[in-house]
Amino acid sequence: MSIKPLIGQPISRLEGHLKVTGAAKYAGEYNVSDLLYGYVVNSTITKGKIISMNTDEVKKIPGIVEIFTHENRPSLAWFDMQYSDMDAPPGSPFRPLHKPDIKYNGQPIALIVAETFELARYAASILKAEYQTEAFKTDLEANLGEGRKPQPGLATMLKPPPPKDKGDIDLALSAAAFTSKGTFTHGTEHHNPLELFATTTVYEGKGKVTIYDKTQGTVNCQLYVGNVFGLHFKDVRVISPYVGGGFGSGLRPQYQLFLSVMVALELKRNVRVTLDRSQMFTFGHRPPTIQKTKFGSDINGKITALYHEATAETSLYEDYTETVVNWAPMIYPSPNSKMEYNLVPLDVFTPIDMRAPGGSTGLHAIESTIDDLAHQAKIDPIQFRLLNYAERDESVNRPFSSKELKQCFIQGAEKFGWDKRNPEPRSMRNGNKLVGYGMATGAWESMILPARAEAILTTEGKLIVKSAVTDIGTGTLTVMSQIAADELGLPLDQVTFEYGDSKMPFAPIQGGSFTVSTVGSAIKAAGKALRKKLLKIAQHIPHSAFKGLEIEDVVFQDGYIRLKLDPSKEIAFTALIHANKGKVIRTKNFNVPNLLKLKKHSRAAHSAAFVEVEVDEELGVINVTRAVTAVAAGKIINPKTARSQILGGMVWSISKALREETISDHNFGKYMNQNLGEYHIPVHADIHDLDVIFVEENDEIVNELGSKGIGEIGLVGMPPAIANAIFHATGKRINEFPIHFDKLL
Amino acid sequence: MNDFNFYKSQGISDAVEKIADQPDAKFIAGGTNLIDLLKYNLMTVSTLVDVNSIKEDTLSETDGAVLLNAFATNANTAYHPIIEERYPLLSKAILAGASAQIRNMASNGGNLLQKTRCYYYYDANTPCNKREPGSGCSAINGYNRNLAILGTSDHCIAVFPSDMCVALAALNATVCVTGPDGDRKIPFSEFHRLPGNTPHIDNNLLTAELITGIELPSKGFEKNYSYLKLRDRNSYAFALISVATAMELENNQITEIRIALGGVAAKPWRVQKAEDFLVGKTPTKENFALAAELIVEGAKGFEFNAFKIELAKRAIIRNCLMALNPASQLPGAQPSA
Amino acid sequence: MRTESIQPPPEAKNSETVTLHINGEARTLSVKPWVTLLDALRENLDLTGTKKGCDHGQCGACTVICDGKRILSCLSLAVMKDGAEITTIEGVAPTGDLHPLQKAFIEHDAFQCGYCTPGQICSAIGMFKEGKAHTEAEVKELMSGNLCRCGANTNIINAIMEVKNGGNYE
């Protein structure tokens, strides 16, 4: 190992130069020669059938190359399984242009292919369909009674069903000294990454395609395209190194990918299909969810009862689920608990994971109910949580692999100045503004999946590591380079990480905060294997000082293998290449997590979020003036990019609690604010003082890196902390997100 | 967006002639709203007549009055020393609208011609009387958080979205136009129209008339003024409620006051009765509260925007108090103490 | 819904020849009036550093500097910019070096996915030229036309403030 490990260093993003100069190319920016432009036409009704379209008329316009609809879509794969993907929920995946049937408003019904972008866009505006309409249902609240249990399926592996009931919840609630009940309403949200979804497909001839796609999984898309279009996987290459934000929207292959590849194969031409901003609202969203909680405690504030129920929207053709109600018994031990989770299928596109899916929904309900219980019991919210601190995960009766949540409370509270809080609501002011302090706990399960990685020592003695994984802006390139560099004891400039390409070794989709755990472990394994191989080569050199030694007896430093006990005995990596007849030295490893070992522990990152709000007493206007998030997520590979991940989650928290919402009009069964002018994500003027603390946490269980993942945890605890702060400021508990300021009038 | 011809005009009369000649031809200056509408296919044009070549100074002064060039950008106007010094209310209101980039493009004339931001107007697949007369109004029983509470009709509850115009209304500006039949002037209060039975007609401009200037009377209320904008985020969003207050005080008595509301109607909203009531009164919270009641008299809330009635009243009171201390105003016309 | 009469295919409109002075270089191209400056940059001139995030003037990703002012290229027609001096992200720094803002953005980790970044940087350069942002609150307000979905807001504002306070942004 190098003397000063790179893991733990705040390295600036390695692709930074390319991003600040505009040189980084995103999926819709590969201006290959002879490019055709595709523009999608979407259904204007919510449910029914297409009767006819004026395709022939529109096709007459000079420059229109082809129009694809359900009538001339090529005959493709038959079975649902072939349309499935790594993130597909149980059910029957959506097939673009498959049939005249309309399943949701905004469904793609045609693709115009033209010689220019402007012409394709124009033709799309005049292509009209005649429909036979049917009655539809899109309103979750109006159809709550139709909730039912989700179908089990493969997805259940990462999204476990609610834990079993414990004790007698009704009895416990009726006997409780304090009880708190709430109904929590969350509407639809859309990911709205700033980059529009786009696919540029290069037709390479003979059924071979190179695809530049906006995705969170190159291999996922490669398999999908291969299966759907009946191509050899080796003939499908999906490239996606720079992704202009994903937040979950790129976890499944989206319809522009299908359409672009279809055109390329049918017309044997290069083609780009870019969605417009309104079309970004037509392929998956965070589902509206309505939750009910009933918690009870004894006179001393010890929790005795936890009831948490959630009903969420899904589509009529897939059962999308989230882990919404499993958290309370994991965070708070209680002898009595009951959790329920139901789905209402409606005439919408299937929801898709959106940053901190489930957790950011469920924890709002849990942590606001806890806040209310603490308020009733007249116990400080932190003390209340310490009083009910879970040293073990009682919900499944396992120890935690590590849990430094207590330190999050202590360090976060200190940095925030929690001790200055007057517990009485409406007691703190700043001029004509009411000031409120609120806090909440966050938790996110640490997952790991199998992945492959390749490590190559080049002829110059440099290291190349490879994985198909994307970098959606989380810092993957940088942290993987750090992990790889440390494995071989090399400085960062001697290491290249090649990624974002399905040609590289297998990586699963990038989401769920499991990329560092998954791909990082694979890279670590590949690096370890390479070290062994290098030592072996060193031992075969005549008069080798390394004969008979184990890997533990040597160090890898600055391009040399050295004897631990006598560093003067060394051999250069370049000498090993020479010994290998001038050829590169490579290892490829498949890292499969040890499930048996992992399953003995509950593994989760934790956080404590602290928020100060100011509420204009007369006008209701709310500002989050300060916030601190303290995170315990195991080893932090890169504190700089990790901090940005948490800051991003904190901005999303402000957005979720106070800003963003997709507005539905259920008379029409459609979304009404499909643009960034009316879908309000925070602007700079909304964001004030944000701070992040990483609490030291050692974890030897989760993975070899001891790193838990941080993509979601910043967005789990802070939304309820904002709601709790607003309660503290105003005495009003608003359980519907986003909290509109006029609710405080 | 449909295919169209482009014509760079040589001057005002050339531009007006070109438009008068062709159906579906339109002037384009900044284009910040027009190109947006063309991209959403809410308008089609045969020819765009570019009036940007009509370059003059941002404004000119005569006899104390100021004539804003209609083709000057919002930013150049807001940051012009004469506007900053003599008409700071106008400056603040302009700077509360859109974003810095858009203000660098958008013209003063174009600002008056913005289309409503009603969701249903923008969705060509829903009925909307403004977009398609006689098709019905989806907003009345739909999502109407951002829509009108005053001056509505059974046919339309759209809101006119400008901030600049709220200040222009308070300042008693006059709109100067040139058409095929020559020049004329339109008092600001008569420029925009309430929906009535003809919600598709936003204003009283006649066919082929071009806005060439906006006259500001000499009185700029530079001592006591304030613009307040309440919206769903702190910047870069349209107003739910905005208020422009221009006030003149003598010995702690109001000698003149103008209060214009934005975000509540199809035009900036002023109520003479309320302003008259305040003249001769002391500038107290109580007096402003009484005036606020008069201003929102007759307001009608809908399912999602009924809160605006109470919010408008509170915003009026706050903004009038803020006008007593204009230096306290915050960037983005956010509420201050 | 209502049925619409189908418009006849459009008569072919003439392309116009325009010269754009982009990053100090005169680029002459033939474009139809319906081509926006943004699409001309990205599709005709392969200057893809300028980003398309919404195409409706609602995100700021397409910000460029035109005749010294920051504008939105998505709401500009290329034909309207004939003769204009345009600076895109590819041209904000002298060859081979980075603009102080570009350096500060890297140092402050003022981006994640990087898609809003060119627009943020061009916008901040335009803001400096305007000279109207003095306090941090004013900077935040005057930068609010540039959205960042990754939530890098505090790092972006810190990077801009550092360069502003350093005074080295010409």
TrEMBL record, chain A:
<dbReference type="Pfam" id="PF02738">
    <property type="entry name" value="MoCoBD_1"/>
</dbReference>
<dbReference type="Pfam" id="PF20256">
    <property type="entry name" value="MoCoBD_2"/>
</dbReference>
<dbReference type="GO" id="GO:0005506">
    <property type="term" value="F:iron ion binding"/>
</dbReference>
<protein>
    <submittedName>
        <fullName>Aldehyde oxidase</fullName>
    </submittedName>
</protein>
<dbReference type="InterPro" id="IPR016208">
    <property type="entry name" value="Ald_Oxase/xanthine_DH-like"/>
</dbReference>
<feature type="domain" description="Aldehyde oxidase/xanthine dehydrogenase a/b hammerhead">
    <location>
        <begin position="21"/>
        <end position="135"/>
    </location>
</feature>
<dbReference type="InterPro" id="IPR037165">
    <property type="entry name" value="AldOxase/xan_DH_Mopterin-bd_sf"/>
</dbReference>
<dbReference type="InterPro" id="IPR008274">
    <property type="entry name" value="AldOxase/xan_DH_MoCoBD1"/>
</dbReference>
<dbReference type="InterPro" id="IPR036856">
    <property type="entry name" value="Ald_Oxase/Xan_DH_a/b_sf"/>
</dbReference>
<dbReference type="InterPro" id="IPR046867">
    <property type="entry name" value="AldOxase/xan_DH_MoCoBD2"/>
</dbReference>
<dbReference type="InterPro" id="IPR000674">
    <property type="entry name" value="Ald_Oxase/Xan_DH_a/b"/>
</dbReference>
<dbReference type="GO" id="GO:0016491">
    <property type="term" value="F:oxidoreductase activity"/>
</dbReference>
<dbReference type="Pfam" id="PF01315">
    <property type="entry name" value="Ald_Xan_dh_C"/>
</dbReference>
TrEMBL record, chain B:
<dbReference type="GO" id="GO:0016491">
    <property type="term" value="F:oxidoreductase activity"/>
</dbReference>
<dbReference type="InterPro" id="IPR005107">
    <property type="entry name" value="CO_DH_flav_C"/>
</dbReference>
<dbReference type="InterPro" id="IPR036318">
    <property type="entry name" value="FAD-bd_PCMH-like_sf"/>
</dbReference>
<dbReference type="Pfam" id="PF03450">
    <property type="entry name" value="CO_deh_flav_C"/>
</dbReference>
<feature type="domain" description="FAD-binding PCMH-type">
    <location>
        <begin position="1"/>
        <end position="221"/>
    </location>
</feature>
<keyword id="KW-0274">FAD</keyword>
<dbReference type="GO" id="GO:0071949">
    <property type="term" value="F:FAD binding"/>
</dbReference>
<dbReference type="InterPro" id="IPR016169">
    <property type="entry name" value="FAD-bd_PCMH_sub2"/>
</dbReference>
<dbReference type="InterPro" id="IPR016167">
    <property type="entry name" value="FAD-bd_PCMH_sub1"/>
</dbReference>
<dbReference type="InterPro" id="IPR051312">
    <property type="entry name" value="Diverse_Substr_Oxidored"/>
</dbReference>
<protein>
    <submittedName>
        <fullName>FAD-binding molybdopterin dehydrogenase</fullName>
    </submittedName>
</protein>
<dbReference type="Pfam" id="PF00941">
    <property type="entry name" value="FAD_binding_5"/>
</dbReference>
<dbReference type="InterPro" id="IPR002346">
    <property type="entry name" value="Mopterin_DH_FAD-bd"/>
</dbReference>
<keyword id="KW-0285">Flavoprotein</keyword>
<dbReference type="InterPro" id="IPR036683">
    <property type="entry name" value="CO_DH_flav_C_dom_sf"/>
</dbReference>
UniProtKB/TrEMBL annotation, chain C:
<dbReference type="InterPro" id="IPR006058">
    <property type="entry name" value="2Fe2S_fd_BS"/>
</dbReference>
<keyword id="KW-0479">Metal-binding</keyword>
<dbReference type="GO" id="GO:0051537">
    <property type="term" value="F:2 iron, 2 sulfur cluster binding"/>
</dbReference>
<dbReference type="GO" id="GO:0046872">
    <property type="term" value="F:metal ion binding"/>
</dbReference>
<dbReference type="InterPro" id="IPR036010">
    <property type="entry name" value="2Fe-2S_ferredoxin-like_sf"/>
</dbReference>
<dbReference type="GO" id="GO:0016903">
    <property type="term" value="F:oxidoreductase activity, acting on the aldehyde or oxo group of donors"/>
</dbReference>
<dbReference type="Pfam" id="PF01799">
    <property type="entry name" value="Fer2_2"/>
</dbReference>
<keyword id="KW-0001">2Fe-2S</keyword>
<keyword id="KW-0560">Oxidoreductase</keyword>
<feature type="domain" description="2Fe-2S ferredoxin-type">
    <location>
        <begin position="16"/>
        <end position="92"/>
    </location>
</feature>
<protein>
    <submittedName>
        <fullName>(2Fe-2S)-binding protein</fullName>
    </submittedName>
</protein>
<dbReference type="Pfam" id="PF00111">
    <property type="entry name" value="Fer2"/>
</dbReference>
<dbReference type="InterPro" id="IPR001041">
    <property type="entry name" value="2Fe-2S_ferredoxin-type"/>
</dbReference>
<dbReference type="InterPro" id="IPR002888">
    <property type="entry name" value="2Fe-2S-bd"/>
</dbReference>
<keyword id="KW-0411">Iron-sulfur</keyword>
